[in-house]
Structures are given as structure tokens and as C-alpha cells.
């Protein structure tokens, strides 16, 4: 009977883990130049762990490539600042909620360019499993399962963050490659034009000298 109960709890917890991981992919939004966009999330329990990450997906041409970061300010229920990112194209942070309530996440785009941002937010609450445990010997098992959930999510979280950063770097590299190719083509065209002009001038010079010699 105990074995069946344990198996039942394991199946339920694993299903919860998979369900919660499916909802942890985050979302993408747009923010116009010199604008601010804020999001709110309710944390139900003190001691919950809040995971945050973001990546600026859009990449702009020319000199703006090196300066297309955004600001992110995280504030608690009383308006206290918890953490901030300044002029970053990506960031990852986690913190323990000291109070239950509404937490705000405000992005600021100080550049004149439109930006596209992928934002991930997740709250981990482990005590949920213990609230439904009746037998004392289930506690160690549920504790290990809760840690397993956190480990699986951390891997998923970091993998998703790295994939977005890799995609963004690919866009940057592609843009740089195009500029290098265009620059090389312009330099080649300029060199060819200079060579043709030199040949033309030398030919005219020889023709003039030849004409002078005949006279």
C-alpha cells in the first residue's frame, strides 16, 4: 500500500514538473525607442525563488550594434529596488522573495531604435509538495523531487537563454559579414577604377610625348 502511494506521488510530481516546464519558455515583446514597458507578477509565498532572464533579439545596422542594450529594473511589493541591469543586451538573475505581493519588472529602451526582447519569468515554490504529504516518510522523497524539478528547470532555463544569445550573435555576425563583403567590394571597385584611370592618364601622356617628338 505504501509503495503504491509513493508511486502515485512520484507520478503526480513528475507530471507537475513537466507541466511547469512547458510553461517556462517566456514570451517576446516589442518596445519602441525611448519608451518603457513594465510587467507585474504576483508572488504568493515568502521564500519563493524568482528566476528572470532576457535577451535583446533585434540587431540594428551600423554603429548601433555596439550600443543596443536596454535597462531592466526589478522592484518589490513596497517599491524597493531589488536589482537592475543597465545597457545590457542580455541578463540572467534569480532572487528569493522576502515578501509576498506584486513584483514589477520594467524595461527601458533609451535608444531611438525599436527593440524586440525575449523575457523569461518563473517562480519556484517547493513547499507545495509538502502541503499534500500525509505520511512523514514521504518528506525526503518529495524534497528530492523538488530539487530535481529545480535542477531540470535550471538546465532548461540556461539552455533557452544560451540559444537566444546564440541566435542574436549569429545575427550580429551575419550583419558584420555583409558589411565586410560590401567594404571589400567597394575597395575592389575603387582599386579597379584607380587602375583604369592610371592607365588612361599614362596613355594620354605617352600620346602627347609621341606627338611632340614627331613635331
UniProtKB/TrEMBL annotation:
Task: Output the InterPro entries linked to this UniProt entry.
Answer: Emp24-like, GOLD_dom
Q: What is its main location?
A: membrane
Domain of life here?
A: Eukaryota
Which PROSITE patterns has this protein been placed in? GOLD (PS50866)
TM stretches of this protein: 6-21
Q: Where is the GOLD domain?
A: 36-123
Q: Which GO terms describe its cellular component?
A: membrane
> Which family is it part of?
Belongs to the EMP24/GP25L family.
Q: How does it sit in the membrane?
A: Single-pass type I membrane protein
List localization entries. Answer: Membrane
Keywords for the protein's UniProt record, in alphabetical order:
Membrane, Signal, Transmembrane, Transmembrane helix
Q: What is this protein called?
A: Transmembrane emp24 domain-containing protein p24beta2-like
Q: Which Pfam families match?
A: EMP24_GP25L
Amino acid at each position: 500500500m505504501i509503495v503504491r502511494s509513493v508511486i502515485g506521488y512520484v507520478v503526480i510530481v513528475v507530471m507537475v514538473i513537466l507541466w511547469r516546464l512547458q510553461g517556462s519558455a517566456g514570451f517576446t515583446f516589442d518596445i519602441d525607442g525611448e519608451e518603457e514597458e513594465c510587467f507585474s507578477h504576483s508572488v504568493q509565498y515568502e521564500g519563493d525563488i524568482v528566476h528572470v532572464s532576457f535577451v535583446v533579439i533585434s540587431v540594428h545596422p551600423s554603429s548601433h550594434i555596439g550600443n543596443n542594450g536596454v535597462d531592466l529594473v526589478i522592484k518589490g511589493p513596497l517599491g524597493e529596488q531589488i536589482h537592475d541591469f543597465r545597457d545590457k543586451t542580455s541578463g540572467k538573475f534569480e532572487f528569493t522573495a522576502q515578501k509576498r505581493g506584486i513584483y514589477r519588472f520594467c524595461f527601458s529602451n533609451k535608444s531611438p531604435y525599436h527593440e524586440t526582447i525575449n523575457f523569461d519569468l518563473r517562480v519556484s515554490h517547493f513547499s507545495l509538495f509538502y502541503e499534500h504529504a500525509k505520511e512523514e516518510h514521504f518528506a525526503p522523497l518529495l524534497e528530492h523531487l523538488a530539487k530535481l524539478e529545480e535542477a531540470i528547470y535550471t538546465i532548461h532555463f540556461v539552455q533557452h537563454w544560451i540559444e537566444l544569445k546564440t541566435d542574436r550573435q549569429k545575427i550580429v555576425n551575419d550583419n558584420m559579414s555583409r558589411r565586410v563583403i560590401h567594404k571589400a567590394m567597394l575597395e575592389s571597385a575603387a582599386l579597379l577604377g584607380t587602375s583604369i584611370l592610371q592607365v588612361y592618364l599614362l596613355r594620354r601622356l605617352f600620346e602627347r610625348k609621341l606627338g611632340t617628338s614627331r613635331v
